[in-house]
C-alpha cells in the first residue's frame, strides 16, 4: 500500500466526507468544503474507476477561489453503491436526484465532469434544464470509444477479479507504465506520487467489474457526444482536453473541434488525460473567465 504524503493529507483534511441516502435506498458518498461567505457552488464528477479522492487537487484549487466545492463518488465507486444502469439516462437521473439533495436551494454555479464524468454531466445537461448562469466544463472527455478501451473492456470482463486487480492496480511495473500513459509530465515526482496514491485508493474502493461491464457499455449504447450540442448548452459549456491525451486519442480532439465548434474549446499544452492534475491552473482560469462573462 502506497502511503499518503503530508501534502495530500493536508488537502484532504479540508474536506468533510458525507453520505446521502436517496429515495430508492442507494447511498451516495461525496466530499465537501464550504469556505466562509461562499456564494459559488462547484460540483465535480470524476472519471471511470476513479473516486472523489482523485479529484482533490482540483477541488482544493476551487476551494482557494472561495467556491463551495462538492466532489461526488459515481455509483459503484468510493462510498457510493452501484445502481441499475440501462443507458446514460439512468446516470443523468441519478445525478439529478443527487444535485437536488446536495444543492437544495440552488443549482451549482459550475458543473464539471472529468473523462467519463464529462459524459455523465453532458447526459444530465441534455435532459434537465439548467439555469443559464450555470457553467459546464467537460474536462478530458472521451467522445469516441478508443479501440484500446474496447479491447481492455472485453479483457477485464473475462478474467477473474483478483487477476484484474493485480494487473490494473497493484503490479508496480504495470502501474509505472499506466502512469506514463496517463501523464504528459510523468517525470514530475509529485504527479507520479499523487497518481499512485489515487490508484491505490481506487484499487481498494472501486468496483472495477461494475465500471467495465455496466457503466462503459451504457456509454457505448447512448453516447451523449453523438447528439448535437444545442445552442443554449454551447453557450454554457467549456470543453477542455490535453494535447497529449493518449486515452482519448487524436481522433477525439478532431471530433470535439467539430461537435463542439459553437462552445468554448481549450486545448491544454503538455497535458495528458489527467487534466485534473496537469491542467489545474487552466481549468481554474477557464472557470473564472466563464463566471465573469
Could you characterize what this model shows?
This protein is an alpha/beta fold and 293 residues long. It has one domain (6-292): Rossmann fold, CATH 3.40.50.1820. The chain is 47% helix and 16% strand. The protein has 13 helices and 8 strands. It has helices at 6-13, 56-64, 88-102, 116-127, 147-156, 161-170, 172-182, 189-205, 208-221, 231-236, 250-259, 275-278, 280-292, and strands spanning 16-21, 27-33, 40-45, 67-72, 110-114, 135-139, 237-242, 264-268. It has an 8-stranded mixed sheet, with helices on both faces. It is globular.
Task: Give keywords.
13 helices; alpha/beta; single chain; globular; 8 strands; 47% helix; Rossmann fold; 293 residues
Distance between the termini: 45 Å
CATH topology: Rossmann fold
Structural class: alpha/beta
State the total count of DSSP E strands: 8
CATH class: Alpha Beta
Put simply, the count of helices is 13
- Overall morphology: globular
Taking the sheet with the most strands, its summary is: 8 strands, mixed
Order of helices and strands: HEEEHEHEHEHHHHHHEHEHH
Amino acid at each position: 500500500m502506497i502511503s499518503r504524503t503530508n501534502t495530500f493529507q493536508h488537502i484532504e483534511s479540508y474536506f468533510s466526507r458525507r453520505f446521502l441516502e436517496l429515495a430508492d435506498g442507494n447511498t451516495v458518498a461525496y466530499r465537501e468544503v464550504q469556505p466562509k461567505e461562499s456564494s459559488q457552488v462547484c460540483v465535480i464528477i470524476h472519471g471511470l474507476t476513479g473516486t472523489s479522492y482523485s479529484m482533490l487537487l482540483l477541488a482544493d484549487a476551487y476551494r482557494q477561489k472561495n467556491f463551495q466545492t462538492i466532489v461526488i463518488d459515481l455509483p459503484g465507486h468510493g462510498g457510493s453503491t452501484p445502481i441499475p444502469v440501462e443507458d446514460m439516462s439512468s446516470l443523468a437521473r441519478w445525478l439529478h436526484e443527487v444535485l437536488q439533495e446536495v444543492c437544495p436551494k440552488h443549482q451549482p454555479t459550475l458543473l464539471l465532469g472529468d473523462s467519463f464524468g464529462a459524459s455523465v454531466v453532458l447526459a444530465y445537461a441534455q435532459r434537465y434544464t439548467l439555469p443559464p448562469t450555470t457553467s459546464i466544463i467537460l474536462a478530458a472527455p472521451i467522445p469516441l470509444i478508443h479501440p484500446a478501451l474496447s479491447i481492455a473492456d472485453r479483457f477485464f470482463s473475462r478474467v477473474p477479479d483478483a487477476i484484474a486487480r493485480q494487473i490494473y492496480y497493484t503490479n508496480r511495473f504495470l502501474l509505472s507504465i499506466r502512469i506514463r500513459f496517463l501523464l504528459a509530465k510523468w517525470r514530475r515526482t509529485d504527479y507520479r506520487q499523487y497518481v499512485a496514491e489515487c490508484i491505490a485508493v481506487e484499487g481498494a474502493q472501486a468496483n472495477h467489474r461494475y465500471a467495465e461491464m455496466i457503466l462503459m457499455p451504457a456509454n457505448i449504447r447512448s453516447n451523449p457526444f453523438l447528439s448535437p450540442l444545442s445552442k443554449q448548452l454551447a453557450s454554457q459549456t467549456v470543453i477542455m482536453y490535453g494535447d497529449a491525451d493518449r486515452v482519448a486519442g487524436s481522433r477525439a480532439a478532431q471530433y470535439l473541434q467539430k461537435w463542439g465548434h459553437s462552445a468554448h474549446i481549450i486545448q491544454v499544452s503538455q497535458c495528458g488525460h489527467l487534466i485534473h492534475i496537469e491542467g489545474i491552473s487552466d481549468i481554474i482560469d477557464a472557470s473564472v473567465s466563464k463566471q465573469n462573462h
